[in-house]
Amino acid sequence: MLSKEDQRRFEQITRHLRETDPAFFARLDDRARGRRGRWLMLLTIVLWAALPATTVLAGRLAGAICAAVLVANAAVMWRFRRRWL
User: Fold this and answer.
1) CB 68 within 8 A of CB 53
2) Mean pLDDT score of the chain, rounded to an integer?
3) End-to-end alpha-carbon separation of the chain, Å?
4) What are phi and psi of 62, to 5 degrees?
5) How confident is the model at residue 60 (pLDDT cuts 50, 70, 90)?
6) Mean pLDDT across 20-46
């Protein structure tokens, strides 16, 4: 945790960086977005892998609902794939 003074100073530095070098700041933002996308992709893969166990343990209805949600998730990720990867 940063102290209030350190947090204020950090925000001031960030604001200055954003104003003076927007290209650099945009590259940093893109890297963070890429990491977020990779984590989301990993979570999706893990949930797809867990689908058979969910179906067996919780029943067909729960498996069907989980599959429908994952198909919708895959469609959204495919539609906005440039944003996630």
Assistant:
1) no
2) 82
3) 30
4) -65, -40
5) very high
6) 75
Concatenated DSSP letters for 21-85? -HHHHHHHHHHHHHHHHHHHHHHHHHHHHHHHHHHHHH-HHHHHHHHHHHHHHHHHHHHTHHHH-
Nearest-5° Cα angle at 81, 35 to 23: 60
Q: Which two tokens stand for residue 19?
A: 């104003």
Give the pLDDT band of residue 84 (cuts 50, 70, 90). low
> Under 8 Å CB-to-CB from 18, ≥6 apart: which residues?
25
Give the pTM: 0.51
54: Cα within 13 Å, side-chain hemisphere: 14
Determine if residue 84 is left, alpha or beta; phi over 0 gives left, psi from -120 to 50 gives alpha, anything else beta.
Answer: alpha
